[in-house]
Amino acid sequence: MTPLSRKPGHLIRRLHQISTHVFARRVADAGFDLTPVQFAALDALGANQGVDQARLADLVAKDRATTGAVVDRLEQKGLVSRSVSARDKRARVLTLTPEGLALLARIAPVVEDLQREILRGLDDHEYRQFVELAAKAAAAASELRED
Length: 147
Known about the structure:
CATH architecture: Orthogonal Bundle
Largest sheet: 3 strands, antiparallel
Mean pLDDT: 91
Low-confidence stretches: none
Number of helices: 6
Helix content: 55-70%
Structural class: mainly alpha
CATH topology: Arc Repressor Mutant, subunit A
């Protein structure tokens, strides 16, 4: 039997813990009050202004209820605004406010810089290889969810 330290599920969970810890520490040290999921939502909206909440949930790989709670919090912080969709009156269109755009511009370099710390034991080649393999595995897993 494979030891726990060599099982992908355990290693993925452990890396998620490390990633969350590093993110929280570095972002707080830089003076920001944002969770990893809130950052993911801001980042996705920065690249996809005007999407609805269901599409945002897909972009950040979270369920709609969680995404709704994240958007609520970002709206309370004045970073995101919601408006009724012109195409579907039931849907809400999401956009970053000027404050949200400014925050995203300030925090993005902090988040970019902390990425290497998450995988600090890897050299440049290994880091790139890890990212490629993780992206490939995530894409394949996403296809399974759609079945």
